[in-house]
Amino acid sequence: MSLNDLSLPPVSPADAASLAVMVTGSVLLPGDAGFDDERAVWNLNHELRPAIIVVPQSAADVQASIRFAAEQHRPVLVKATGHQIVGQAHGAVVIATRQMNDVTIDVVGRTARVGAGAVWSEVVEKAARAGLAPLNGSNLTVGVTGYTLGGGLSPTLGRSFGYAADHVRSLDVVTADGEVRHVDAQCEPDLFWALRGGKGNFGVVTALEFSLFPVARLYGGAIYFPGERTADVLRAWTEWHPGTPESMVTSIAVMRMPPIPEVTEPLRGKFLAAVRIAYSGTTADGERMVAPLRAVAPAVFDTVRDMPYTEVASIHDEPTDPVPYYERGLTLRAFPAQAQDKLIELVGPQADTALVIAELRALGGAWDREPAVPNAVATRGLPYSLLGVAAGPLSQEQHLKRSVAELLDGMKPWQGDRRYVNNVAPEEAGDAIAIYGPERYARLASVKKTYDPANMFRLNHNVIPAA
């Protein structure tokens, strides 16, 4: 956000009324009924304070909103579910896309076309009726568009097929000039490259089309071990996963579960080390592969089973209602014995930490391969992604942030040179070069100069237009 955004005046009722005439959706000012509902985000510790909110029903509504923002020299923030929001949007136009949530499945073409506000649960459910599956994330309440524009690191099928962004066929986007553009590999290829991985820097995506895959079932779930066995489980998992096929996607999470009703009873209030499993081969092969892990220690709870793809959210079993939290992530270029020891020190039984979860996800496979039509995803070739999450109210902010920082700072000796943008904290938004690397960032900045020279879309992990 520019410092000038803090000094932007309120939108006058007259100006809001002139915009309302142009859109079929809602136009809301502070104090209007529904304004607070539309500015709410997933993280209860984060608050938006925009000048005006538009709830569009069509691409034409988005166009009108963008042109209004341009006339008033206001930044634009796009919100579907609000899982990853940067800044408070002072003086901004917020475009809340949740009503643009159409999902259409092309069974023959194995594709989905979704609106800007669709969430993964809607896509998974409709695709499953045809025996198909998308490259969704771990939490099906997350919006499809923001997840995909950030790359899309699927913990169910990603190691077999790559990033969600790799399989986008086309996007409809309204750019800062108010124009609707249909973008694909042939039409405006530079923008197509940048949108897939460059997050929300280049416009408002109103719809996108992407590939689906013929997967109806998984052998998946989580094996929860006593946290006191963290070292044994971590070392066994680290030795085990490189020998598994690309159809096996796996991670390990050290968890300090709060004693609240929302947590499943066997896990409530427990300190645990969990191995997450998603295998798209046969159940028999999955059981054989997972057997060495099950032998490490007696499980507190074991949910790994044959399941329909519609139940994949149970693998990570994440909250489905908004919560207060802080999270940050980084990539690791390696995970040798010294790094394993350090991680155990930071999150194991002797650690003094407020982290609810520290998850290490094994990458590789198709995540390392450039797609047929290259894109801006920055993290190929990095073997691990590490995420730390601390949960608690705003009153505990410094303590929670310190615990997350201690995890990431402790693992810096093995940190990769690029980062996965969907796991980067809002306060780290000012260093997009560190996310993308200098060469990729320079190309993104060039595309930004073409399509958003005034940096209207700056309330994000911002790519600044090239000079």
Automatic annotation (TrEMBL):
GO MF term list: FAD binding; oxidoreductase activity
Domain FAD-binding PCMH-type intervals: 46-215
Cofactor(s) the protein requires to work: FAD
InterPro entries: BBE, FAD-bd_PCMH, FAD-bd_PCMH-like_sf, FAD-bd_PCMH_sub1, FAD-bd_PCMH_sub2, FAD-linked_Oxidoreductase, Oxid_FAD_bind_N, Oxy_OxRdtase_FAD_BS
Tree of life domain: Bacteria
Source organism: Paraburkholderia rhizosphaerae
Protein name per the record: FAD/FMN-containing dehydrogenase
Keywords: FAD, Flavoprotein, Oxidoreductase
Recorded family membership: Belongs to the oxygen-dependent FAD-linked oxidoreductase family.
